[in-house]
């Protein structure tokens, strides 16, 4: 019986698996989802969890897969993927796990997500391991009197806001290599407005500066450019790196030099017919955000079904509107939507949409819990 295998059950893999389970005929195909942890991780909520150890929010951030498959049509396998093999026909193969087990595939969907640093680099294991990890980081933040956050993308900005909510009098410094927050996907006026909102909360900002080594052995430090700063705790808050080392085994066409997956408009991996990829690992000119799953997942689902029915995949991914919501603690933030003339959102709407609830409802829907 042909086996559809999805590698990764995060913000992209979960909705793909959920959608496929509703459309696949279980008498003709099997669906297997491989994940390195036995729970779904809702990353947008983790920065607040790391600072507060909020037990309710922990529960809402680490969600079970009990309802992931519609009609019970699918199975979860917990394991770390180390490689992919292909049969001589190139249209099937196995996914190799660190345990030594091999999982056969006839159609393969790659949604492995990103590798993160510091507090977002969760350990493997069950939920108790993650909760211990959260507690250890909450204690680090509690013990430190001053922080330097290296990277003023969304992660750095949002962590600074969470820290200021809990520690109103501690020194916080945001260090960023560019001359403005975020990146040039967004207009300068919006980027400067976020900086203004951060500075209002008495958070120091160092722009056009870099920190090459994370050294927490002292309190007095200098950037690469020689600018001094003080911090008991330096935290890297840079963007994630594609978790694609195991995909090298597909061949040289599969990956860019940076490690992103080359895909066709149908989201089939370059050089492959029965292998698809989606999420923040693909080489596509767009911001790497979980919100893009709404565009990626339907393309993958329709094309997998077409392939299994003997047709050529034809649905193409044509990109998504660029939009971002950046929290600034529980009650503030700013947003931008790349529509019309460029729509900007302030504290009230950003807090109402994201800052207060951290989009937990969307995460629950992704795994069938809402």
UniProtKB/TrEMBL annotation:
Gene3D superfamilies: 3.50.50.100. Pfam families: Pyr_redox_2. This is FAD/NAD(P)-binding domain-containing protein. Residues 3-294 form the FAD/NAD(P)-binding domain. GO terms for cellular component: cytoplasm. The lineage of its organism: Eukaryota, Fungi, Dikarya, Basidiomycota, Agaricomycotina. GO terms for molecular function: electron-transferring-flavoprotein dehydrogenase activity; flavin adenine dinucleotide binding. SUPFAM superfamilies: FAD/NAD(P)-binding domain. Belongs to the FAD-dependent oxidoreductase family. The keyword Oxidoreductase applies. It comes from the Eukaryota. Keywords: FAD, Flavoprotein, Oxidoreductase.
């Amino acid at each position: 019986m042909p086996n559809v295998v999805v590698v990764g059950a995060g913000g992209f893999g979960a909705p793909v698996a959920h959608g496929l389970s509703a459309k696949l005929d279980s008498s003709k195909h099997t669906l297997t989802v491989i994940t390195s942890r036995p729970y779904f991780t809702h990353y947008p909520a983790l920065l607040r969890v790391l600072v507060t150890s909020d037990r309710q929010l922990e529960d809402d951030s680490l969600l079970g897969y009990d309802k992931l498959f519609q009609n019970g049509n699918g199975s979860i396998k917990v394991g770390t993927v180390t490689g992919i093999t292909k049969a001589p026909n190139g249209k099937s193969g196995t996914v190799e796990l660190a345990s030594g087990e091999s999982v056969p595939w006839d159609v393969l969907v790659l949604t492995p997500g990103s590798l993160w640093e510091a507090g977002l680099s969760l350990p493997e294991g069950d939920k108790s391991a993650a909760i211990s990890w959260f507690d250890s980081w909450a204690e680090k933040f509690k013990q430190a009197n001053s922080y330097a956050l290296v990277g003023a993308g969304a992660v750095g900005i949002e962590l600074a806001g969470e820290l200021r909510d809990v520690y109103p009098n501690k020194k916080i410094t945001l260090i960023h290599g560019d001359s403005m927050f975020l990146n040039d996907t967004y207009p300068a006026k919006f980027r400067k407005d976020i900086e203004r909102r951060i500075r209002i909360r008495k958070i120091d900002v160092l722009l056009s500066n870099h920190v090459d080594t994370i050294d927490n052995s002292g309190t007095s430090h200098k950037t690469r450019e020689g600018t001094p700063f003080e911090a008991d705790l330096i935290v890297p808050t840079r963007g994630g790196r594609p978790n694609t080392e195991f995909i090298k085994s597909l061949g040289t066409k599969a990956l860019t030099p940076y490690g992103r997956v080359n895909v066709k408009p149908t989201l089939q991996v370059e050089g492959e017919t029965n292998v698809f990829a989606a999420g923040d690992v693909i080489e596509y000119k767009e911001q790497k955000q979980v919100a893009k799953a709404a565009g990626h997942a339907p393309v993958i689902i329709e094309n997998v079904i077409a392939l299994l029915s003997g047709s050529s995949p034809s649905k193409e991914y044509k990109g998504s509107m660029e939009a971002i919501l950046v929290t600034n603690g529980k009650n503030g933030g700013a947003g931008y939507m790349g529509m019309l003339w460029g729509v900007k959102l302030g504290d009230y709407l950003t807090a109402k949409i994201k800052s207060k609830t951290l989009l937990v409802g969307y995460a629950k829907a992704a795994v069938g819990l809402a």
